[in-house]
UniProtKB/TrEMBL annotation:
Keyword rRNA processing found: no
PROSITE patterns on file: TPR (PS50005)
GO biological process: interstrand cross-link repair
Annotated protein name in UniProt: FANCG protein
Signal peptide: 1-26
The gene coding this protein: Fancg
Endoplasmic reticulum recorded as keyword: no
Keywords noted in UniProt: Signal, TPR repeat
Organism: Sylvia borin (Garden warbler)
Highest rank taxon of the organism: Eukaryota
Length: 588
């Protein structure tokens, strides 16, 4: 409450500087709020000089103080406080305000300074141009302004590098992040910078260079687990599966040990780089995976690479984690690497089936079927778009909600149908053709719930992926059931299934081959030969092009697709060719 007096203002401003730094250091959390103490300090400076600035914003207030206050004893304390203000603005990503303030600090000292050379980053050049006031005769500071300047410069380079990385300007981001890596920071932040450098070079299509940066991050801070997950991603891009698996295994083991935080060998500062840089892109790049997520990634990659035994072990370990409460391990923030739980169960069933554990696969699928049964309506109507309305329809929000609900119902239907499909494949592998036919029929019966209607509402396009997936499951079920009908000697029923398969996917190689085989077994050899010729005379590459345009198949359906492949193409082709040659000789 005392009036401001020039003789004691240097002490006041220094106490304010030290107290703000101590407050920041004690909180040990990112700076988020404006420093109101700085504003009060500047107003007291103006009050002592016979001026006022109550109605000014912070930038205008700083401009007024630095331009009008010329008392020599106040210059060093004001510069110290200005650096602290720049740190606060930097934490709020107000880069323009930071640049303007350092421009004022430099020009107040020497109008010729703060010049940016061509090709240099403007903000960094302005910060570096600021001459820190000598501290020999000044009051003691809890953190020197010189150290604060170095931290601000490092944080500014890091923050701008992250912004350029997010914007896709990778060469610029690379230069700024390299500048930050050579700056003044703790080992923890240095490891984070190297991790971001690795992500940047990986997005530039340089996975080998990315690995060098990521390994450097781990050398600096062995607890920088996000770097290890990015290492696995880089090896995946390079196709080095063994190295990728090793990285994921190390990550899983490291996360499971949960070691205590290592003591930093860097000097302790109240204001640190980590308090100034906290952006969504950095949070995304440095997101810590939970052990269950890494375990799932291991299982999935093993299954994709054909390491079935390892995949089964990892999937079973993952499913056991469900008993420990998976929701407590993985945050529900939309960033998890885990898919929906029914898909995980279906992938596990696929791995078990490929490992020859057919009964276990059937049991896992039964869990999916039982859990989704009550979530599917009796009839699902999907409107087929005729034309898109030129203007938004009334009640668009309600329509979006209904569309989302319908999408969820289609997903549940796909999971349940896939469960029946996988059970049918497993029973077929066990040699139980009748039971396999039953499961395939249940799958097809489920898919009859979907009814396609023609409408002027644009919905099918939004549900295209779900509709295509259901059609693929239906195709595989028809082929699978037809195969079992052939095993049971019910060729006519098999023929109908293969004909329906070709209606769903004209030119499908497996369906066409099985259709020819069914006709041949029915002694309709002329029709079989005609169908074979029709299939072979299709436009070159037509079938491959059609498959290339399809969406990638979910991993849990890959084994069913492989099982539906026709295994005797060469024998069938030779048989048809012999028949055609014999028929030609008879004709001649």
């Amino acid at each position: 409450g005392l009036p401001a007096a020039l003789p004691v203002l240097p002490l006041e401003l220094t106490v304010l500087y030290n107290s703000l730094l101590c407050t920041v250091g004690a909180s040990d959390s990112a700076i988020k709020e404006e420093a109101e103490g700085i504003r009060l300090g500047l107003l007291r400076v103006l009050e002592a000089c016979g001026a006022c600035g109550q109605d000014l914003g912070m930038e205008e207030l700083w401009q007024k103080v630095l331009q009008e206050v010329t008392v020599e004893e106040l210059q060093a304390p004001l510069h110290h406080l200005g650096a602290l203000q720049a740190a606060w603005w930097l934490a709020a990503s107000r880069l323009g305000s930071v640049a303007g303030l350092f421009q004022l600090l430099s020009t107040a000292e020497d109008p010729r300074r703060a010049h940016c050379s061509e090709g240099q980053n403007e903000l960094l050049s302005i910060i570096k141009a600021w001459r820190v006031p000598p501290e020999g005769d000044s009051l003691p500071l809890v953190q020197s302004a010189r150290d604060l300047k170095e931290i601000i410069c490092t944080a500014a380079a890091f923050l701008q590098g992250l912004q350029e990385l997010e914007a896709g300007n990778f060469p610029t981001a690379l230069c700024l992040l390299q500048e930050a890596a050579g700056g003044f920071c703790s080992k923890k932040i240095l490891a984070q910078i190297y991790t971001c450098l690795g992500c940047c070079t990986q997005r530039m299509g340089k996975p080998q260079t990315a690995l060098q940066h990521l390994k450097r991050a781990l050398q600096v801070d062995f607890q920088c687990f996000p770097a290890l997950s990015h290492v696995a991603a880089a090896y995946h891009e390079l196709g080095e599966t063994d190295a990728e698996m090793q990285a994921l295994t190390l990550l899983y083991e490291a996360l499971g040990k949960n070691p205590p935080a290592a003591a930093s060998s860097s000097p302790y500062f109240l204001m640190q780089t980590e308090l100034l840089v906290h952006t969504p892109v950095l949070t995304s790049l440095l997101r810590h995976h939970h052990p269950s997520e890494v375990k799932y990634l291991l299982a999935r990659r093993c299954l994709q690479d054909g390491r079935v035994a390892d995949a089964v072990e990892h999937y079973l370990d993952f499913l056991s984690l469900l008993q420990e409460g998976l929701q407590q391990q993985v945050p529900l923030d939309g960033c998890s690497a885990l898919p929906r739980m029914p898909e995980v169960f279906l992938e596990a069933a696929s791995a078990l089936e490929q490992a020859g554990r057919h009964q276990d696969a059937i049991t896992v699928c039964e869990e999916v079927i039982s859990q989704t049964t009550d979530l599917i309506p009796r009839v699902l109507q999907v409107e087929e778009r005729l034309e898109q309305p030129e203007c938004p329809l009334p009640g668009a929000g309600v329509a979006a909600g209904l569309l989302s609900q319908k999408k969820e119902s289609l997903c549940c239907l796909a999971w349940r149908a896939a469960g029946y499909l996988q059970q049918g494949c497993s029973w077929a592998k066990l040699g139980e053709s009748k039971e396999a036919v039953t499961q395939f029929s249940r799958c097809l019966s489920d898919l009859l719930r979907v009814q396609l209607h023609r409408s002027g509402v644009k919905q099918t396009e939004n549900l295209q992926a779900e509709v295509e997936l259901l059609q693929k499951i239906r195709l595989l079920s028809l082929i699978g059931r037809g195969m079992q009908f052939l095993e049971l000697g019910r060729q006519k029923e098999a023929l109908l299934d293969f004909q329906h398969s070709l209606q769903i996917s004209p030119g499908d190689p497996a369906a066409a081959s099985y259709l020819v085989q069914a006709l041949w077994k029915l002694n309709r050899k002329q029709e079989a030969a005609a169908q074979w010729q029709k299939f072979c005379q299709g436009s070159p590459g037509e079938n491959g092009q059609q498959q290339g345009q399809e969406r990638p198949l979910p991993l849990y359906l890959v084994s069913c697709l492989e099982q539906a492949m026709f295994p005797h193409s060469e024998i069938l082709a030779r048989t048809i060719q012999d028949y055609l040659e014999a028929a030609a000789q008879d004709t001649s």
